[in-house]
Specification:
heterodimer; A: 116 residues; mainly beta; seven-stranded mixed sheet; four-stranded antiparallel sheet; 48% strand; globular; B: 111 residues; five-stranded mixed sheet
């Protein structure tokens, strides 16, 4: 399968613990995005990378959240000191990153987080 | 990005065409209309996008009105597997790279 992959697919943790999610984009894609989706709502943008550079962060991305893409390939999203309000689906998407064409983002299956 | 308005839910009979409307009356000249869908517990799936002209691909057709204030996504022969939440998104060049999702339309295809 050559689509966007995410790991783990499900994560249950206790309040106060740290969690880390991984996203592997489509191999030739330079841009990588993170979104969060709570029950009954559409996905909300968190941040995106062009290669290894983090170019934009949403106000939703509090200090407890950090995202990295160290080699411009896979990305990790870490949540420190999780809170029950962090329970959500965390979605990753990727796109080519060619400024000459309008970008289409392709999404992974998501990581569903439950904070107890 | 322009705000979009979609019905909360719609039903369609299997084998019939599903026509999903979207209102984007504040759309500006350089903004595109994108459609994604999300089947339960999966990531959003890209369907189609367009600027002014009608577009068709293997999944669907997109009809954009001449004034561009509304559009319709058409699934010509809906199947049970088309049951999903359908999101209409307006995206311009000044929005950076983010997609701004609304709450979408829950389409239920009935046997």
């Amino acid at each position: 399968d050559t689509g966007v992959s995410q790991d783990p697919r499900h994560k249950i943790t206790k309040r106060g613990q740290n969690v880390t999610f991984r996203c592997d984009p489509i191999s030739e894609h330079n841009r990588l995005y993170w979104y969060r989706q709570t029950l009954g709502q559409g996905p909300e943008f968190l941040t995106y990378f062009q290669n290894e550079a983090q170019l934009e962060k949403s106000r939703l991305l509090s200090d407890r959240f950090s995202a990295e893409r160290p080699k411009g390939s896979f990305s990790t999203l870490e949540i420190q000191r999780t809170e029950q309000g962090d329970s959500a689906m965390y979605l990753c998407a990727s796109s080519l990153g060619d400024p000459r064409v309008r970008e289409t983002q392709y999404f992974g299956p998501g990581t569903r987080l439950l904070v107890l | 990005d322009a705000k979009t308005t979609q019905p909360t839910s719609m039903d369609c009979a299997e084998g019939r065409a599903a026509n999903l409307p979207c209102n984007h009356s504040t759309i500006s000249g350089n903004e595109y209309v994108y459609w994604y869908r999300q089947i339960h517990s999966q990531g959003p799936q890209y369907i189609i996008h367009g600027l002014k002209n009608n577009e068709t691909n293997e999944m669907a057709s997109l009809i954009i009105t001449e004034d561009r204030k509304s559009s319709t996504l058409i699934l010509p022969h809906a199947t049970l597997r088309d049951t999903a939440v359908y999101y209409c998104i307006v995206r311009g060049e000044t929005s950076g790279s983010r997609l701004t999702f609304g709450e979408g339309t829950q389409l239920t295809v009935n046997p």
